[in-house]
């Protein structure tokens, strides 16, 4: 069985390491031995290969190709090579790709604002609280909503908790005042930044590094694996470990494509995907931890830990965000969310 690498990110030779892997994948010997697949699934995503999402997509490919004897092939397009934040969902709806895994923050823009529940700051104390939503009826109801857009939601998985970065520590609300903070296209995240006194600027993930470097924006938020693999430490001097919000994903396919598959193929693909998502959930924490270790070793970013009191002040400042979301979605969604979280 071909092993899927979970290499910790390397401090410096990361790019060279990736280039070496990419080169190996193109060896003609490996290609000649492969029968041509009858079905090819195109899986597009916007992050680097050594993130939880990148590794899960690659593991999914290995599992599907092995179990189908290469009758079903998977082409993975990482790093927004094919489509970025603004067009990947449309590409899926049009059938230009077959699978995408956007962050849950990016479903509001296709008419599903209820996914922004996951963006509420300080909502989840830990990942087991996230599971109460994703594995329960509320999580299923959210996925079913995708049918309104001709899509099928196949499952959730984690990246982890987000941290704040800028060219100064961001430990309390006053630190955010006047900063332009890059955000994903989520009204909840935008409201969170406003509540902290910052100005949210919505930008595609692929544009973030450059926008930080050129001063178009001053700071951003993301789990450490995304921060590290986008080389954001080269354009940000301070990373504050606020753990203020959750970043997770849903894997989505096109209804027409999905229904067109033979039942047995659907089952094989779904089984491989659920295993790949379980794998991502297992490694997400360690990927973020090894990215943090690599960042510390690289030495060009200062890492800050807020005190419990500072975190409490951040939490208090963003409290109005929940009420704003309730007015947009209806109080019922918030009640269902609270009920699911307290069920234990
Ligand atoms: C983002 O900041 O846009 C990230 O959430 C991208 C991703 O898919 O992890």
What descriptors fit this protein?
disordered N terminus, four-stranded mixed beta sheet, globular, 344 residues, five-stranded mixed beta sheet, 11 strands, single chain, D-Maltodextrin-Binding Protein, domain 2, binds (2S)-2-hydroxybutanedioic acid, 47% helix, 15 helices, alpha/beta
Describe the structure.
47% of the residues lie in helices and 16% in strands. With 344 residues, it is an alpha/beta fold. It has one domain: 3-Layer(aba) Sandwich (D-Maltodextrin-Binding Protein, domain 2), CATH 3.40.190.170. The chain has a five-stranded mixed β-sheet with strand order 2-1-3-10-4, sandwiched between helices. α3 runs antiparallel to α12, α8 runs antiparallel to α14 and α14 packs across α15. The longest helix has 36 residues. The N terminus is likely disordered. The structure holds (2S)-2-hydroxybutanedioic acid. (2S)-2-hydroxybutanedioic acid binds next to loops.
